[in-house]
Amino acid sequence: MKTVLVFIALLVAVQSNKLVPKTVAKVKDECSQTIVVGKGTYTFYKCPKDYYAAVEICKSEHVKGNLLSIHTHELHVNIINELKQLNNIEHEVWIGATKGRFSTTFYWTDGSKMNYKYWARGSPSKNLQSWFSPACVVMETKEPGYWHDVDCYKLRPFVCETE
């Protein structure tokens, strides 16, 4: 009986250790690669997170930035080219565009104006269900890099724009 209790205690300890999230610093060290495009510095995180976790990591003390905001086609193309060189096996990354519940308007999480968009055909979703729930934006990492609005809880790699 005592052996069974010890085994159960060890099993619980191992399982609970899996549930403890990594610190932002550890995620940055283990999962990130820096990209320099023009005068901008960006960090690509290959460890997939949901949109909300990606936003928090980008805004953290260790990163001091935001999810990527894209304002020109030139930046868009350059970021896609850099991501291709990193041998990213995922085909989509989170960028900083999102919309809230009961809205059809997308915005950048850094507060800047959404003056450039590169939606795929059929995106953003126009169905009634999408109006009732938040949506977050992924960018394809293959050319031409179309954007899609998807469920914010999907796990994806992401790109932070750093200060």
What's the helix and strand layout?
Layout: H1 2-19, H2 24-31, E1 32-37, E2 40-49, H3 51-59, E3 65-67, H4 73-85, E4 92-99, E5 107-108, H5 128-132, E6 135-140, E7 147-150, E8 156-162
Antiparallel strand pairs: 1-2, 2-8, 3-8, 4-5, 4-6, 6-7
Write structural notes for this entry:
The protein has a 4-stranded antiparallel sheet with strand order 1-2-8-3, with helices on both faces. The protein is globular. 27% of the residues are buried. It has a single domain, classed as Mannose-Binding Protein A, Chain A (Roll). It is an alpha+beta fold and 163 residues long. A hairpin with a 2-residue loop joins strand 1 (32-37) and strand 2 (40-49). Helices cover 33% and strands 28% of the residues.
**Distance between the amino and carboxyl termini:** 57 Å
Q: What is the chain-wise order of helices and strands?
A: HHEEHEHEEHEEE
What structural class results from the helix and strand content? Answer: alpha+beta
CATH top level class name: Alpha Beta
User: Mind describing the biggest β-sheet?
Assistant: 4 strands, antiparallel
Tell me the radius of gyration: 18 Å
Please, what is the average pLDDT?
Answer: 82
CATH architecture tag: Roll
Which fold name corresponds to the CATH topology?
Mannose-Binding Protein A, Chain A
CATH superfamily: Mannose-Binding Protein A, subunit A
* Strand tally: 8
- Beta-strand percent range: 25-35%
Give, in spatial order, the strands making up the sheet with the most strands: 1-2-8-3
| Domains (count) | 1
Low-confidence stretches: 4-22
Count of separate DSSP helical elements: 5
- Overall shape: it is globular
Give helix % range: 25-40%
